[in-house]
Amino acid sequence: MNSSAPSASQRLHSSGRVFQISISTGGVPKRAVPSARVTVNGIEGDAQANTKHHGGPERAVCLFSINVIRRLQAEGHPIAPGTIGENLTIEGIDWSQVVPGSRFEFDGGVVLEVTKFTTPCATIRDSFTDLEFRRVKEELHPGESRVYARVIEEGPISTGARLMHSLR
Description:
This protein is mainly β.
């Protein structure tokens, strides 16, 4: 048996890192911070203007991909990390593989589980040419949506933190 071959559980993981952590006192854009504490209620220091549609235990943290942001910028959209409300901008993950049930395990012990794709709303329209905020709607552009996650394990998180993504 080849001892260097990956185990079944290792094949289910890919690594990435935290590109940016973003918070706001409500609304967008969210501003970058170097580190934060993740709790079951979300990122400390972050708030949502509309708690009917944002926040809560099942939508505690919003995640998005810097690679998708870069593709959108190449299309001419004026988007940047934090401008569409994500708390964690992630690098190095095949974003098309991020689906409800996926888990992210970060350096420092934070564990998040994706609960759902977000539903984009008009408050993020300024990040898109022609105000076309539905450009990040999962049903229209699969693999290019933000996602919400619940917090399985609380703890500190920092920009640059390595993570493992459990593919489901």
